Amino acid sequence: MSPLRLTDEQEMLLGSLREFLDREVPASMIREFDREDRPPMELREKMKPLGVFGLTVPEEFGGAGRCVTEAVMVVEELSRVWPALAWIYIGTAFYGGENIYKLGSEEQKRAFLPRLASGDLLFAYALTEPEAGSDTLSIRTRATREGSTYILEGTKTFISLPDHADWIIVLARTERSEDPRHGLTFFLVPRGSEGLSFNPIEKLGYKGSTLCEVVLDRVPVPEENILGGTGCRDRGWEQLLKTLDVEHLEIAACGTGLAQGAFDLAKEYAVQRTQFGRPIVKFQAVAHMLADMATNIQASRLMVREGCSLIEEGLPAGLEACMAKSVATETAKKCALDALQIYGGLGY
Questions:
Q1: Which DSSP letter does residue 238 get?
Q2: pTM for this prediction
Q3: Structure-derived torsion over alpha carbons of residues 40, 42, 46, 52, reported in degrees to the nearest 10
Q4: From 58's CA, which of 45, 179, 205, 282 has a CA 20 to 30 Å away?
Q5: Strand 167-173 relative to strand 149-160: parallel, antiparallel, unpaired?
Q6: 319-333 confidence digits (pLDDT tens)
Q7: Which of the four CATH numbers 1.10.10.10, 1.25.40.10, 1.20.140.10, 1.10.10.350 does domain 239-346 have?
Q8: Tens digit of pLDDT for each residue in 38-91?
Q9: Does domain 8-121 have CATH number 3.40.50.2300?
């Protein structure tokens, strides 16, 4: 079966999601939130009846049954219309549902998964630091044990939606070692914790999804808030590798959806816009741009679906996920720029 051929259930899922977006997300709303750089948190409530938040949660915890492929499809479809809305979904279904299911203790699964499946919780994921971007092993945030509590100190940066999240998953160093892979620990930190603060980062694009510096100034975290339980202290690197492939694929889906949205708008405009007595889509230069856009989007989508298929089968997908992320994000950039060219002065 072709990885792009949808099952009846997937057709229904995407159909209901498209109806929701057409009904609840007019272009005027997107422009308003974009102008104010305000996350559309109100729409999370309206999305709950769709059941999409439970796609990364097993039925035993109130979810729809785990299906990474369908959850990634939702990310793509939301990104097609409004990328900021996709990041709210990612915070619940992936940063929350995926991480708690794969890495959480049984107690944490019982506490969090039902509320994640219903869309009632939002998580943020705090890895990146000013001196540790892709080089995660160089993080400086530290967690010092004081009795049954850990004191977190450090700064995270470029973190999505931490100022709106209910919980933040924070990676900190609990032990110094000659092997930097040892001594990393994930902590579950509630947003209202003492000593926790956020500094918004102004950005050029991707409005409507806040990006913040997260400051941890002696934030107390009980030992039971170690992700996976106390037995997972110093196992953060091992845990990170278990979820990194899915994270790459969700970002690739964002890029694919954004590219599709740009293509849809550019094609519609090219059909309607008339110059020299005919629609500009009839000019070969414009038609070639649209053809290249469509081809690259299809290639990106195929790579994302291949990565999802491997994960669903329990097979390694590291290479495929990284390739999908690389291709899809470049496709998003190029399609957005090409759409701008097709719109001409109106697009700018």
A1: H
A2: 0.95
A3: 50
A4: 45
A5: unpaired
A6: 999 999 999 999 999
A7: 1.20.140.10
A8: 999 999 999 999 999 999 999 999 999 889 999 999 999 999 999 999 999 999
A9: no
